[in-house]
Write a structure and sequence with these properties.
mainly alpha; two-stranded antiparallel sheet; MetI-like fold; 13 helices; about 75% helix; single chain; about 325 residues
């Protein structure tokens, strides 16, 4: 167990150092921070002084080491667009993105798993075929198109849900949430459903595929031969083993929801990190872009680590120690 954890931690460190290097290269080759901060009318003396203040006159290795050290502390400097600490901007926007992503993940799981089980157990029937067709649409349609269609139906035509913004939020210390207000829930529904559609369809198709595979296994045949009721076979044996690979996919998809909420946040003007990143790209705000890249990588690495540990705990085959010589 300890060797397994240490190996995963070593891999995570390698990934984070690589991402930090890529983020640092943004500072080197995308735009000029001195020009962005001082403008075109600054004198050469002012430019040279700012370069010294920012440490841009030092060697590449020294600059990268300082960047990594600051990144470990969560510091990425000042936003070139807003003139504020990037860490403060991320802290303001992160609750909105996390709230949206978790809501989308819950919708995808709560709806996708039962529909996948139903499609597997009722294979060939009209309802199951209809669900598979709809899931194919959910996987194929672009997120922005789904969002626009939902806005057209529920915000423009029926006028029952708001089409943009986060609504009324409650501040709890440094955290803000819309879960505690009715207006916050209303504003959350459309973007959360939009973001969940792809993941929901993916989970449904995965559960159906795995369920059909498990139902053909020998131990399911033996369970039937023992006279177990279908409910016990389906939900006591088949579903439990079906969910093992779903754990991995779901964990990775949670990271994807956070990383790729950019489109949904842009369509609904949701004030999260994705919208902040889009605005940073438009302005070439390198510190914000670098911070976003490192944060998303960290989220993926942590989720991967948790998923690996869960998989290790669920699958006993991973806990079998291999012989020292690698023999059989």
């Amino acid at each position: 167990m300890l060797v397994f954890i240490l190996r995963r931690l070593a891999q995570a460190i390698v990934v984070m150092v690589t991402v930090a290097f890529i983020a640092f290269m943004l500072f080197q080759y995308v735009g000029d921070p001195v020009t962005s901060l001082l403008g075109q009318d600054a004198t050469q003396e002012q430019r040279d002084q700012l370069r010294r203040d920012l440490g841009l006159d030092q060697s590449f290795v020294v600059q990268f080491g300082r960047f990594v050290g600051n990144a470990v502390q969560g510091e990425f400097g000042l936003s070139l667009r807003q003139g504020r600490q990037v860490s403060a901007l991320i802290a303001e926007r992160f609750p909105a993105t996390l709230e949206l992503s978790l809501s989308a993940a819950v919708i995808a799981l709560v709806v996708g798993i039962p529909l996948g089980v139903y499609a597997a157990l009722r294979r060939g029937r009209f309802g199951a075929q209809l669900m598979m067709t709809l899931s194919l649409l959910g996987v194929s349609l672009p997120t922005f198109l789904i969002g626009i269609l939902l806005i057209l139906i529920f915000a423009v035509t029926f006028k029952v849900l708001p089409s943009f913004g986060r609504g009324e939020v409650v501040t709890l210390g440094a955290w803000t949430t819309g879960f505690l207000t009715v207006d916050g829930w209303k504003h959350l529904i459309l973007p959360a459903v939009t973001l969940s559609v792809f993941q929901l369809a993916l989970i449904m198709r995965l559960v159906r595929s795995e369920m059909l595979e498990v139902l053909r296994a020998d131990y399911i045949k033996f369970a039937r031969a023992r006279g177990l009721h279908n409910r016990a076979v389906y939900f006591g044996h088949a579903l439990k083993n079906t969910l093992v690979p779903v754990i991995t996919i779901t964990g990775l998809q949670l990271g994807s929801l956070i990383a790729f909420a950019i489109i949904t946040e842009t369509v609904f003007q949701w004030p999260g990190m994705g919208l902040l990143f889009i605005q940073a790209v438009q302005f070439a705000d390198i510190p914000v872009m670098a911070a976003y890249l490192c944060l998303i990588a960290l989220i993926f690495v942590l989720i991967n680590l948790v998923v690996d540990l869960l998989y290790f705990a669920v699958d006993p085959r991973l806990r079998i120690e291999k012989p020292a010589g690698g023999g059989h």
